[in-house]
Structures are given as structure tokens and as C-alpha cells.
Design a protein that fits this description.
Structural class: mainly beta
Distance between the termini: 56 Å
Oligomer: single chain
Number of strands: 55
Length: 732
């Protein structure tokens, strides 16, 4: 009888074929790239085509015993990669059907060569069998010979299989381990609010280059190449969002009067179209978006591209809500109604299947937690939002993983800003992700490629000092500096010491140094919270400050020599930026106890707080004679009698909270938050004239302080400030 070669088994389905021995998957004869685990999964499904293959069987086939991995996520990843290679869909499957809580089934017809082994039989390497002449006396020898050959072959095949499996697992592990974060962009200025295109190869983002006053929308390919500018507008364009087909980008454009337009532009550039207009009553969102405390994204598409979800703030100081807008008509419907005492909702993110909305809800200045709510097909809430986290910590970004089972978010829940991951279907304690570098902010996760991108701030905060007396004006100099944030310096009443807020210990705390900057001493010792905005008592013995150590921001008083602090406010609202009355009996502070922030005051020794202003107020200081109270509101300076009475406008224009009352008048800054140089001016009480003193470096860090003898000015800057986009590859 002639020699017989057993041909290799090849599976055919549709336009595909796969040889299990060469482990090659081909489409129309062209070899496709497919990783080992998805390929092994395909072989298992083909061997049992038409049958339900449980997740337990997949686990046993793909991983040996004593392997410790997240099997659910690993199986989901393999199925997803296999479907991508086959061009299959879980919603409308042609090849692989998902059976909820049971497993998977290969549903397409599969053809096999004649004589192929049954699927229950183990597959072994092909063996060339030669029929030998029949001989009665050689039968035992022949049996032993065949058995020896079979055993040797099985042993050899098993050894080779183990070696190949180990190499494959090693390579797979190396391929699937997230790589360290690397810069996606290397541009100066502020880059942020990233968004991945549906295929994951492009990133849209907002960028304000150095020297420009507003950001515009840019798109960059992952990898080499420069960003392509899509918008060229005199107003701020920010928070881009890709349409599901990748053809359009929606974004917000700042409008006068605390409004913004929802705009659309082709992803390759072209004619813009306005969808609707929203109210955003927060100045920082419209003109200083990189410093906003509202987490991005601000926009999200529905899966059918008929709707856009956006943030809207109906009153200048009201809460942010999530609203649904028709892409075709612009018709609006409000979806969420946060409590009045909160800043509101943000960080919109719709799950990949379009059935769940995730967002953050703010409970203070920075403190937020994550909520989810089920969505109907027309993007309306099907139930009340469910709270997932109870950290009450700062959150800066939120995104779904491609499988729709987990959320990735940036949070200070561990003390410093890091990336965290948590399950949505089975809520559990969030897990820290180590792939990101320092201080990740806004983030996006690609749904096709294995990428994560986040914003990394490069802000460098310093306290500067400028001499005010003398005929020859000296240039400002960096006075207090470290590798961390240093700001909000404040002179003591005798001018011999300076209290300031510093992050040099790892967390924001209150420090004290001599007037010449020497001998810095840490006064507070918080680790997973902030202490800031120090103010001296009139006798220089105590310091009041604000802190979020309890979750909400409250006002505290501590002895300037150290010791336990006294907590003065205890409500569930936010109290911050305190200052002393000139007689030392009261402490003023800004509070969110009403919808609009107002000035309140509380006895310095403790007691019941009482309201001071009725029409809004921010940072307050008494005049040197103790007769008037100055306070900021809407980039203006106002005053009212300490004893009570009507308010009066003092300065119709100023920068943030940068003012310092002295006996002769008021020093203040003018400019915008992004200016490289700011104008220092002086309002003279005697002449009512405004005098130009000089210029100081910007961008500004919110407050100034003048020494009691008016010889020195302290001010903060974010010199060298900026942000860039960082990319993590192989993120799963």
C-alpha cells in the first residue's frame, strides 16, 4: 500500500481560512495579524462551532492552571480583538454570538476537509504513517514500534507546545503591558480637553499657544506629525467631541454675556455650523478654561449622532446641569437637576453602548464624586442618578473603558492627583493606575486602539517681590520658590514675617518665613487635604486659613507658633478665603450658603456666623481704619460700611482678587489672567486718581500683599505655566 500523508486541517468560513498548525489566519488568501490569545480563542470556537463555549472553557484553553489574571477582562479583550479582525459586531454578529452570562458561539457555517478529526479528539501534530508488510511474527514488534513512535511524538509535540506557549505568553505580556506615558505633543502653551476619534488614530484638543489669548481646536495623529488647526476664531474654542462616524467635531465657542455656542465643524476642516447656544455663567469657562474647576468633557454625542449632551448653567452663579440638544434643530431638554448648594455637574461621558451616562457632581469648590444614570434610546434619563464614589475629592477627568464596564478618572483621592479605575457593573473600591506620570488631569480613552491620553500641567507657581519705594523702580524678582506650588504670600502686621501657601511638603500647607524669605517653617501638616489662603490676626499672634480636611472647605484659626487649629465653620457648604476685622473680633469669609456666594463673618473665638453682603461677594478686607469693608465681585471692587449700609462701586475693573488696601489708598492689578505682564496701579484716596506704578510678571496667581510700610509688594505668578498631552500605549 502506498504512503499516505495526513493533510493539515484547515477551517474555512466565509472569506476566511485558518490553519491551526501554522496558526495563520487569512482573508481572501491574505494573511492577517492576530495575537495569540484571540487566535487560540478562534480555534476553540471553530472546533466547537454551533456549540456554546463557556467562559470557563475559554479560561482553561487560554491560560494554564495557577495563572492569576483578570480573566473576565482578558476574555473580553480577546473577543473584541477577534471581532475586530473578522469585521464582526456584537450587536449584529455574523460569526461570534454572545450569550449573556453563558459564553460565546460560532454561528457561521464552517467547512472542513474530508476526514478531519472530530472536535472531541485532541489535535496532534501530523505524522507520516507507512504501512509495513503483514507478518505474524513481527506483530508484537510492530505494536511496540508504533507505540514508541506515538509516545515520542506526543512528548516532542507537548514539549514544543509548552515552549511556544511560554514564548507566546511572554511576548503577549510584553505587548499588553501599558507603556510609560510619553508626550503626544511637544507644544508650548496650554493643551487640554483631549478627545479620541472613533478609530483611535486621531486626537482632537484645545490649544492656546504662547502669546495667544484664546484656545482653538486642533487635531493630531497619534505618532509623528504636527497638529492641524481646525478653528480660527477670536473667541475661545474648547472641549471638542467626535461624532460616532468620525466625520464631525462638536465644540463650544465662547460668546459675550456668559454664553457659549455649540458648534460643529467637519473633522477635515470646512464650514462651521451652530447647533444651539448654552448659558455658562462662569467666567473661567469662557476665558480661562485651563484653570476651570469644572471637569471635562463638557460635550458628549449619542450613538446615533442625533443628540448632543452639554453642560449648561442657567444663572451666573447657579448649578451646572446636563442638557440634551437636538443636532438637527437645537431643541433643548434639561436632564439633571443637582442640588442648589452644589456647583453642579460636569465630566460628561456616555458609555460605548450609549445606554449609560457618567458624570461628576460637585459638592464644594473642588470636591466631586461620580454618578451614573441609565439612558433611553433618545438620550433621556431612565432613572435617578446613582452615586458610585463617596470620596468628596477633586476630580479632573472621566472616561469609559472600551468594554463599557469600567470608568477611568483623575482624582486626588489618594492625596495627589492620579489615575484611578473602578467597575461600574459591580461598584467596588477604585484601583490606582500606575502607568500615568505625575499630576494627570483631563483624559480620554480610545475605543478601538489601546490608547489613553491625558493632560499634564507644567505650571510653576512662584511668589515674586517688588520694591515700591525709592525713585528708581526695581524689577520684580522671584522671592519664594521651590519645585512645587508657592503662592498667596501675606505680610504679618509688623512686616517681619510672611505666611504663604506651599506644596513643597507634598500637599498644600501653610508655611511661615522671615520677611527676607529665610528660615521657612511649616505650620500645618496635612497630607491628603489642602490648607491655604493664610491671613494674620491684627496682633500677629494667630493665622486664619481655609482647608478641605473634612471634605468641605471650612475656616480655621491656628496659633502662629503652632499647635492644634480651631475650626470655626461646620456647615455642609463651602467657606473659604477668610480675613480678620481690624479689632480682631471677627473673621470674614466667602460662603456658598446661598446660591450666589456671599460675604459672611464669624466670631474669631467661635460662634454663629452671620451674613454681611446681599448681592454677592468674594475676597474681603477691612480698611485700615476699620470703617469700610472692601470685597471683590465680578472682576470689580466694592465697599460697604462695616456697621452696615449700601454698597458702593470702588473700581469698575480689576484682575481677580489682586488688591491690597493701605492707609493712603488701594494697590491693585489690571490685565487678563493669561497676560505675560500685568499693570500695577494705585487708587489714591485723597485725589481719587489712579496712578500707574509699573508692571509685574504674569500670569497672575489671584492675590497681592503690601508690607505695612509700603516698601514691598508680594504677588504670585504661574511663570512657565502650560500643559501638554501625554500618551499611554497598550492601555487596557
Amino acid at each position: 500500500m502506498p504512503e499516505i500523508d495526513q493533510q493539515p486541517l484547515t477551517f474555512h468560513f466565509g472569506v476566511f481560512e485558518i490553519n491551526p498548525h501554522t496558526r495563520e489566519l487569512r482573508k481572501h488568501g491574505v494573511k492577517l495579524k492576530l495575537q495569540d490569545q484571540p487566535l487560540e480563542l478562534l480555534l476553540l470556537l471553530l472546533e466547537r462551532s454551533g456549540e456554546i463555549v463557556t467562559r470557563e472553557k475559554i479560561q482553561k484553553r487560554l491560560w494554564p492552571e495557577n495563572t492569576h489574571v483578570d480573566f473576565d477582562n482578558a476574555i473580553n479583550s480577546s473577543v473584541r480583538k477577534l471581532r475586530d479582525a473578522l469585521g464582526d459586531s456584537s450587536d449584529n454578529p455574523r460569526f461570534i454570538e454572545t450569550l449573556a452570562r453563558r459564553g460565546y458561539r460560532f454561528i457561521a457555517p464552517v467547512s472542513r476537509p474530508l476526514g478531519a478529526p472530530q472536535r472531541e479528539l485532541p489535535s496532534i501534530s501530523p505524522i507520516r504513517l507507512v504501512q509495513m508488510p503483514a507478518a505474524e511474527s513481527r506483530a508484537p514488534l510492530r505494536k511496540r514500534y508504533v507505540m514508541w513512535i506515538a509516545c515520542a511524538t506526543l512528548l516532542f509535540s507537548g514539549t514544543v507546545a509548552i515552549v511556544l506557549w511560554q514564548i507566546s505568553k511572554s511576548n503577549q505580556s510584553r505587548r499588553e503591558t501599558p507603556e510609560p506615558a510619553v508626550p503626544l505633543t511637544g507644544n508650548r502653551g496650554y493643551e487640554g480637553m483631549p478627545a479620541f476619534s472613533p478609530e483611535g488614530a486621531r486626537v482632537a484638543f484645545s490649544w492656546r499657544p504662547p502669546g495667544e489669548q484664546v484656545p482653538n481646536i486642533y487635531v493630531k495623529l497619534v505618532g509623528q506629525g504636527e497638529p492641524v488647526r481646525l478653528t480660527r476664531n477670536a473667541a475661545s474654542d474648547f472641549t471638542p467631541a467626535w461624532s460616532p462616524d468620525g466625520m464631525w467635531l462638536a465644540f463650544l465657542r465662547a460668546r459675550p454675556g456668559f454664553h457659549a455656542a455649540i458648534m460643529m465643524i467637519p473633522a477635515l476642516g470646512g464650514h462651521e455650523r451652530e447647533v444651539a447656544e448654552v448659558s455658562l455663567g462662569t467666567e473661567e469657562l469662557l476665558h480661562d478654561w485651563e484653570a476651570t474647576s469644572v471637569p471635562s468633557p463638557f460635550l458628549a454625542w449619542s450613538g446615533d449622532a442625533h443628540w448632543l449632551l452639554a453642560l449648561e448653567q442657567n444663572t451666573p452663579h447657579g448649578a451646572f446641569s446636563v442638557a440634551r440638544f437636538s443636532v438637527e434643530t437645537g431643541a433643548k431638554r434639561v436632564l439633571t437637576l443637582p442640588p442648589n448648594e452644589t456647583v453642579g455637574d460636569g465630566g460628561l461621558s456616555v458609555s460605548p453602548d450609549g445606554k449609560t451616562l457618567a458624570f461628576t457632581r460637585t459638592f464644594g469648590l473642588f470636591e466631586k464624586d461620580i454618578f451614573v444614570a441609565p439612558l433611553s434610546e433618545d438620550m433621556l434619563l431612565k432613572g435617578a442618578p446613582i452615586r458610585l464614589t463617596f470620596d468628596n475629592k477633586e476630580i479632573d477627568g472621566l472616561a469609559w473603558t472600551p468594554d463599557g464596564r469600567r470608568l477611568i478618572f483623575s482624582s486626588r483621592r489618594g492625596g495627589r492627583r492620579e489615575l484611578w479605575e473602578m467597575s461600574v457593573r459591580r461598584p467596588s473600591e477604585p484601583v490606582r493606575l500606575s502607568a500615568a506620570g505625575d499630576e494627570p488631569h483631563e483624559l480620554a480613552v480610545s475605543r478601538q486602539a489601546n490608547y489613553l491620553v491625558y493632560t499634564h500641567e507644567t505650571a510653576d507657581w512662584h511668589i515674586w517681590r517688588m520694591r515700591l519705594d525709592g525713585k528708581t523702580r526695581e524689577q520684580p524678582q522671584i522671592f519664594i520658590s521651590s519645585t512645587r506650588m508657592e503662592h498667596l504670600g501675606r505680610y504679618s502686621p509688623d512686616g517681619r514675617r510672611i505666611a504663604y501657601q506651599s506644596g513643597r511638603s507634598g500637599s498644600q500647607n501653610i508655611w511661615i518665613c522671615n520677611a527676607d524669605g529665610s528660615h521657612p517653617v511649616q505650620l500645618t501638616a496635612l497630607h491628603n487635604a489642602w490648607a491655604g489662603s493664610p491671613r494674620w490676626s491684627p496682633d500677629g499672634e494667630k493665622i486664619t486659613y481655609d482647608s478641605n480636611v473634612t471634605g468641605n472647605w471650612h475656616i480655621y484659626v491656628i496659633n502662629a507658633q503652632g499647635g492644634p487649629p480651631l475650626q470655626l465653620t461646620t456647615t455642609n457648604t463651602q467657606d473659604f478665603r477668610a480675613s480678620w476685622s481690624r479689632d480682631g473680633r471677627w473673621i470674614y469669609f466667602c460662603s456658598t450658603r446661598t446660591v450666589q456666594p456671599q460675604i459672611w463673618k464669624v466670631p474669631a473665638a467661635g460662634g454663629t456666623a452671620v451674613p454681611v453682603t446681599k448681592n454677592g461677594g468674594g475676597v474681603a478686607f477691612e480698611s485700615t481704619d476699620g470703617k469700610d469693608l472692601y470685597y471683590t465681585k465680578d472682576q470689580q471692587l466694592w465697599k460697604m460700611p462695616v456697621a452696615g449700609g449700601n454698597e458702593t462701586l470702588v473700581l469698575p475693573s480689576m484682575l481677580d482678587n489682586n488688591y491690597a488696601p493701605v492707609t493712603r489708598g488701594i494697590y491693585f492689578l489690571r490685565g487678563t489672567p493669561t497676560d505675560a505682564m500685568l499693570q500695577l496701579q494705585f487708587l489714591n484716596f485723597a485725589t481719587h486718581a489712579i496712578q500707574n506704578i509699573g508692571t509685574v510678571p504674569g500670569p497672575s496667581c489671584d492675590e497681592i500683599s503690601v508690607s505695612p510700610d509700603e516698601r514691598w509688594l508680594l504677588h504670585g505668578t504661574t511663570s512657565g505655566a502650560g500643559s501638554q498631552l501625554m500618551l499611554i500605549k497598550n492601555f487596557r
